[in-house]
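WARN retry 2 of 3 for item q-0093 after timeout on previous attempt; input resubmitted unchanged.
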Amino acid sequence: MTTSTPEKESVRLHALTSYNILDTLPEQEYDAITQIASHICQTPISLISLLDDHRQWFKSAHGLAMSQTPRQDAFCSHAINEPDQLMVVTDARIDKRFITNPLVTGEPNIVFYAGMPLVDGEGQALGTLCVFDRKPRQLDAQQQASLEALARQVVSLLQLRRSQSQLAEVSQTLQTLNQELHRSNQTLQTIVDNCPAGLVLWKAVWKKDRIIDFQYVFTNSKNATFTGLPIEQMTGNSLKSLFPEVAKDGLFKRLLTVIETRQQQQYQQSYDFNQRTAWGEFTLTPCGDGILFSFQDITQLKKTEQELKIHTDNLTQLVSERTTEIYQLSALQKAILEHAGVAIISTDTEGLIQTVNPAAEKLVGYRADELIGQHTPIMFYDPIDLDNKAKKLTEQLGQPVKPTFELFKLLADSQADNYTICSRDGRRTPVVLTRTALRDESGTITGYVGMATDITTQKQIELLLQQSLEREQELNKLKSKFVTTASHEFRTPLATIQSSVELVKLYLEQPREAAQPVIQRHLASIENQILNVSDMLSDMLNVAKIEAGKIDYNPQLIEIDQLIHDVIRTHFTERQDKRTVLVTVNGQPQLTYLDKKLMTHVLGNLLSNAFKFSTENPELHVDFEQKQLVLTVVDKGIGIPASELPQLFNTFFRASNAVTIQGSGLGLVIARQFVELHGGSLTIGSEENQGTHCTIKIPYQSYSC
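OK item q-0093 returned
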């Protein structure tokens, strides 16, 4: 058995594995050594034995047909515990360590054993060079020395073999790295040539201890179009020689500041180009002893902002307030655009992702190491987008095109197109995508590059502009509906008031005793109609306050039963038809945070409706539940048609079976808004000709100081 500690044995096994020798085919060099060892020691068996964690395996076995034995039976397991000494067992049959060993009691019937540990340069005993005999014997000094020398020779062969293997691996790695470097250079060149942004790399030109100019190291076609100079003319020339006005417009000073501070600069600036004024977004980034300069044309964005400003100046005050929010959002998106780069992903010919830049990581929500060699870019695109593109391309080509990476292959080198990117966290980002095929010197396609520019800001500005127009149209419709409803609802009480006034005038000429009761009755009618008009005006003012967000909300701890008592006593105790409100209370009453004024209005409105649309006594159920207060107003009146229930909370809506009953169509709208200010909800259930129930739910802790 071995006496090595687990830690030392782990190191030894790791060393053995590094030679990659186990289970290899026989090799002449090792077989020659075992033959020599057997000859020198005059033994029938000689082995090169290597011990792993569960067996001893024979790299060379002279005189033995076995290729391995269990480690617990191995003599060599004892030999490696003394790596600097030759282990000799004269007669294993009388040695306590081996007397019951199956290799002694059975084939190959070992009696004599001598083994020299194979110790490598790190001091690890990998196994042994050993000799066996089936009879007792001894080795003389010369034989022992020879066996030790041959063991060292085995170690030398192992180390030579490992060195050759490592050299081959290094050579293969170097070859792979060279191929990757070539591919990366090719990818970089394609990106630079096709990047939608202008790119320039300048190297500082020094004279003594100061920078006097900047030299063009490289530039791309986008910058050549911008400057009007060919790439060949700019490359190698200096900035001042080509554009002497740079000192005047501040660019040269910015370049010096970036070199001195090693800090990136970003700025926007207008410029005159081809007889038009354009806007650009510029970035100066320190790069070694030079500067990387990039720019993007944002003229269209500036134009869109100006058009939005001109339009919003003509909107009403309410729309103007909404437009302020649009500008705030626009400013936020503009700030994002100023710091965002172009998202770039390259693939091989089969679509597997090869490179992902930081902007692309941010766009799709995955790290590069999660994507490279494992996925295709198809996973980021909206499936509906891909289906539509595939159908369109199928019609154009007259052959079926599936929404797979083959679609992008067919679209490579085509014009930029709009897509929606679906990121890991569910974000959907509109982008303009440019696809380009990578080609080697012979023109063969070696991969593809996709470059995506986020166009969220433009899309949102267009959407907000559309929403502003729709809101303006909605307001106009609302104003028209208000005028129509108000004129209709005010006409009836005003007509009643007018007729009552004329009758009062007529009865004033009659004897007082006979005329007085009639005059009082008409005065009461006038007063009632004035109250109706006042209520409608109050409702309309409340709706206006709700729209403007100016409703006062002042909650305090209220006893709900007292509030209900006050509402009923004030509004419903002196009815001519003698009907009243039937109140039931369930649960343990407790104080609740409520705005007394708002909740009085809500209960008054719901109970008034119950009286108005029913001939029986309305019911009010009060339930003190564990976490919330529930108030339910129930009537058994005309109910509401099922098809009209979804419209109940629309401004000015009146049910079709209630058009002959006085009302403004604003009460429920106001009531729900007041309830929601308390953090609660108002829901209505109804069945035509059966009745209606209105349920208010308000959580006890919906307000905190």
